Amino acid sequence: MKVLLVFAHPEPRSLNGALRDVAVTELQRLGHEVLVSDLYAMGWKAAIDRADFPNLASDERLLPTEASKAAFDAGELTQDVRDEIDKLLWADAVILQFPLWWFSMPAILKGWVERVFACGFAYGVGEHSDKRWGNRYGEGVLAGKRAMLIVTTGGWEQHYGPRGINGPIDDLLFPIHHGILFYPGCEVLPPYVLYQAGRLDSVGFETAAERMRERMRTLAETPPIPYRRQNGGDYLIPAMELRPELGTPGAEGFAVHLRDGAGSTA
Predict the structure, then answer these.
(1) Are strands 241-242 and 235-236 parallel, antiparallel or unpaired?
(2) Within a 10 A sphere around the Cβ of 261, how many other Cβ atoms?
(3) Chain-centroid distance, C-alpha 16
(4) Where do the H-state alpha helices sit in the chain?
(5) Is 152 helix (H, G, I), strand (E, B) or coil?
(6) What's the rounded mean pLDDT across residues 236-247?
(7) pTM for this one?
């Protein structure tokens, strides 16, 4: 397999850095090709602004979606963005690795998504009618590629459990799993989550490292999170609501977008 690992931690000697090295070493040992986009080391520009669209007239309003679509269609995206798009097209599997900061990904990784997932590339594509609503949620340019998250967090596992104070980890990661990775078509694997990262000793690290090696060994075979495909018949189009006869009666929230019978993913 060809694997792209997008790494978002400012300190290469961090726990995240060590886990990244474990993952890359194991993937290469297994014969996979690996590219790493180390966003901090690259000095990645996170914010979308006029510099992303150098051919936009100085007196023209910046409408990011429209500007992104025009630049993508014309082959005028900036070189850094084009390079990352080429990596995504090259890869069979995409791994996003980051510490959970304020219940989400670091700003630099969010900025990578916002700039690289350009309109016309990762969204805004396909037919919009009373039968289909674009190529998204299980379809799209990244269809057939596998994706997973490597996430570290300082809280206890119980803090992120079904009744934990921080909310279930599945719910916290849903916007990334479903809204960023599944949206353009990826098959999204259950995440690798390491809790209490700041309290890990050498014995704990070796346990975490072996768990990481196992996830890399099974990257090609792990069943994906069973999200419902948007255009597969489960949703009313164009309302994009789950059909009332599907799911547990009265159920709502993120879990209804899992096929019936599916449970927790973490």
Answers:
(1) antiparallel
(2) 6
(3) 17
(4) 15-29, 39-42, 64-74, 79-90, 107-116, 169-176, 202-217
(5) strand
(6) 92
(7) 0.94
Tokens (6 digits) for 215: 């996830």
List, for residues 81-132, the tens digit of each pLDDT value: 999 999 999 999 999 999 999 999 999 999 999 999 999 999 999 999 988 9
SS3 sequence of 61-123 = CCCHHHHHHHHHHHCCCCHHHHHHHHHHHHCCEEEEEEECECCECCHHHHHHHHHHCCECCCE
Pair of tokens at residue 25 = 């070493």
Nearest Cα to Cα of residue 1 among 175, 158, 218 = 218
List 192's β-bridge partners, or say none. 150
Three-state secondary structure call for residue 160: helix
State how far the Cα of 41 lies from the Cα of 139, in Å rounded to an integer. Answer: 32
| 262 pLDDT more than 80 | no
Residues 6+ positions from 93 with CB-CB distance below 8 Å: 1, 2, 3, 4, 145, 146, 147, 148, 219, 220
What does 27-50 look like in DSSP terms, one character per residue? Answer: HHHTT-EEEEEEHHHHT---S--G
Which tokens in the block code for residue 230? 């948007």
The Cα 132–Cα 127 span in angstroms is: 6
Tell me if 6 sits within 8 A of 96, measured CB to CB. yes
Q: Give the residue carrying structure tokens 């669209």.
A: 53
For residue 243, the Cα-to-chain-centroid distance in whole angstroms is 26
Helices marked H in 30-63: 39-42
9 token code pair: 């931690």
Segment 31-81, tens digit of pLDDT = 999 999 999 999 999 999 999 999 999 899 999 999 999 999 999 999 999
What CA–CA distance (Å, rounded) separates 163 from 171?
12
